[in-house]
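Q: Now give one record:
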Amino acid sequence: MEFKDLPPDTQKIAAETLKSLILDGGTEKVEPAKKLAQEIREAFIALYQSSP
C-alpha cells in the first residue's frame, strides 16, 4: 500500500500531524522534515493496514 491509496481523510490527518510536529518541534532544516514526513507516512500506512 502507498500513501496515495489511503482515504483522503486519513491523508489529511497525516498532513496535519506533520504540520503540527514541524511547528512544535521547530524543524527548520529540510532533511529532518523529510525524515519526519517519511516516518509519519509509514506509520499511517501501517495503522491503516492493520485496521480490521
Notes: The radius of gyration is 12 Å. The chain has a mean pLDDT of 85. The CA atoms of residues 8 and 25 lie 25 Å apart. Residues 30-49 form the longest helix (20 residues).
